[in-house]
Amino acid sequence: MILAHSADKLGMRVLLVHDQCETESVAGRLIRKLKTQLEQDDMEVLSAGSSFDAAMLVVADPLIQAVLLDWDLEDAGSHGPAAVVLDAVRRRNAEVPVFLFTDRENAAQIPLDVLRRTNDFIWLFEDTAAFIAGRVRAAVHSYRENLLPPMFDALARFARVHEYSWHTPGHTGGTAFLKSPVGRAFFDYFGENLFRSDLSISVGELGSLLDHSGPIGESEKYTARVFGAHRTYHVTNGSSTSNRVIMTASVTRGQVALCDRNAHKSVEHAITMSGAVPTYMMPTRNQYGIIGPILPENLTPQAIRASIRANPLVKDGMDAAPVHAIVTNSTYDGLCYNVRRVEELLGQSVDRLHFDEAWYGYARFNPLYEDRYAMHGDPSEHTDDKPSVFATQSTHKLLAALSQASMIHVRDGRNPIEHNRFNEAFMMHASTSPQYAIIASNDVSAAMMDGPGGETLTGESIREAVAFRRLIARLNADYAEQGEWFVNVWQPDVVADESGRKVPFWQADPARLAVDPACWTLKPGESWHGFGKVEEGYCMLDPIKVSVTTPGVGADGLREWGIPASVLTSYLDRFGIVVEKTTDFTILFLFSLGITKGKWGTLVDTLLRFKKDYDANTPLAESLPALASAYPRRYRGMGLKDLCTDMFHTMKNLQTTRLLSAAFSILSRPDMSPAEAYENLVRGRIERLGLDVMAGRTVATGVVPYPPGIPLLMPGENAGPADGPLLGYLKALEAFDAKFPGFTHDTHGVENEDGRYVVACLTR
To answer: Is the N or the C terminus of the chain less surrounded, counting Cβ atoms within 10 Å?
Structure first.
């Protein structure tokens, strides 16, 4: 029994909910006697005398392993208070045992729905305290025995055995670290359990990640059920590896793959490794530079055929039929497709659809996202005449798992890749020495989402995001009434209420915002999203991905003044607030499962503090002391407002925002495939060129500005003319970086050599 054995780590904890606990009534004395008996039986007892206190404890303490609930709580004849507590318990946990205090006469009147959600009765006036405590203890033991999911359970059991190890890893349960002072410090920092669970593939009891056997295989089957897949594979090197596994299993040299141009760098790697011939599907982009959806008209069979015909890499005599398509869902900024619609459109052109859902693993567990994720609906209804569907999810990004934890989900349909064939690609990318803790964290992540807990946890994140969004929108409106500026949030300006009347977002019903997808879907032609006449219901903004906008952007370009988002990001970082992504005028915040009111409350306070320092033009030595100290000559004598003004006018003169949109709105000409470019790179047929001599040259590696983190140029593509948008954008970034040290851009594929951008190009 894993948990019972580790009582010091996870003791038995019981919640006793009864309003007679402190009274001198007969019931009160018996309750206190029962509490004493439970404590003598090694159970910690939390007491609550009201439904409010009990519900708060249920939310705050997931270690509660049994609930003893008075059906007549607060003397309510309707039993409403007890029902409130029971609802709070079952919203979070379908399995924890619940006992009802009642008598035999009242028990006959308890509704069937309540009986189905409880486990047993307590006859306080009939049974002894020792007998009742024994039944509670037995229920707690049973609950604990079945709490852990398959892989984590097996790992914990094995680590507890304390075997002598004659296999790898060489630290043998951590003992090697104990032989050195620095090793001991390392051991003490992480704790013994980490090292005892860091095991070798030689440990047969845990099964194998490579042949999906034993507890690992059972965990993958369990996870597939939870996430709605036919098959699931645990991956221990992130969704970058997951994407490469799928594409190398599905596409090979000379075959056409349809690729969302808004794709992660790992897709570039997968195309290169597989030898696929990419034909790109172009997404939209708005005035902020936020990447929008691929519009439906670009996914029709006619549009796909036209894109393939226009692709110089599809040579005469090649089979032009695409064999694979990959779409990013949701986008980095939180735009989610109606996947049924995407399947309907793309499924007419290709048999295998691949959704990169690295940032979107939670979608199945909240009805707000219905039909907007790859594994939508009932997997048994995914029949052989539908496309085969793959999804990659970075479990660690927005669920609860360790870094590098990822999953591949598969639903077989047309032209499936059966397991044995798919596993050959899986083994090419997997390690024979996987980190078992990462696999176990996938297992635990699935268990946390299983049952009612998934909707409860995701619902909490959504409600916190809604509260933050409404507050920022209200503050923006309040300041605007006073003729002042404040940050805003990229979201609908108005929302239709249930009567159809449009109200400002901050006045909308928060309960409805948290559950109604109609509040978040992009409507055709609405100015706030900037993606034009997008099809009704086709795309939705995910409320938990919050893009805060800074002043400076209008519908037709930059305004007369503005505040670059990078300055605000630096200011937030000074106060320990690390953001997910910063563009010219947006900052992305992720409201993951770990969000709390205190966390986003601190963010709001810091945003208000930034406004105060900006308006006062507080010296950089006070507002951004690290920047002022690192570059004293550049920023001497400047205030926060001075810096923002200087940077904004530089961006306006360099046209960075306009050039970004222009550069990412075109497809550069491919001179060769990414695989061919990589072969030339390996052979050393490259030279490093500055931007001033790159016109017309073929790049050897991808050029990927972060953000947005999608390729500006793919390997083998042409940089275009000297005055074209591609080189124009890079030159603008180069000039900006030279003027503002401490705010330089991160562009993969570009080396900054003493202020000069250099890119590897193929020799002529």
So the answer is: C
